[in-house]
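ZP: hey, is the adenosine-5'-diphosphate complex queued? I don't see it on the tracker
AM: it wasn't, my bad. submitting now with these inputs:
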Amino acid sequence: MPIAAKRPPALPILDRQHLRLVVTGTAPRLVRALTDQALHLWRAPRAVRPDVRLVATELVTNVLQHTPRSEGRLDVFDVALDLLASSAVRVLVFDMSSDMPICRTPAPGAEGSRGLLVVRGLARDWGAFPLPSGGKAVWADVPLAVEAPRDGTDPRMVARVLGAVRDL
Ligand SMILES: Nc1ncnc2c1ncn2[C@@H]1O[C@H](COP(=O)(O)OP(=O)(O)O)[C@@H](O)[C@H]1O
Ligand SMILES: [Mg+2]
């Protein structure tokens, strides 16, 4: 089932870094560079930087994998990173598809369908909402302070492993 539309809470934003990307294979690398620069600029604790990197990578990879491309021209999409006064980074990814993400429970051993589970595990809150232009935005608020795991499992450990694999 696609998730229900949910707008991010209207929290004070201290700074925004953004990038317009072409829907192509280099986008995840470029968004990681943007993320690293923003986290450096904001002096974010090193321990949480991989979490923001991974959330941004998963959301951007989903644009490449799950949104249709136009014939004969380059499709572009926008990514924004907002520094929230509540000590979190909001990752926003805007795409041109009106289809909402689907949060699946992957079969044991399945290779895919874990990206949004990781996002859900690392983010304080997340969601997606339609844009007046016809597309949607998917967003996730990742805490900048190390927070205790909410349910016995440690999604940060999963994130470390996935992040390391992606960087290979
Ligand atoms: N930006 C998006 N636009 C449309 N559908 C999406 C988007 N992101 C995710 N989805 C849907 O949600 C599903 C789950 O995404 P995810 O958990 O990242 O797993 P995976 O990408 O491995 O399929 C996808 O298979 C796709 O159907
Ligand atoms: Mg995915």
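AM: back. The longest helix spans residues 49-66.
ZP: great, adding it to the tracker
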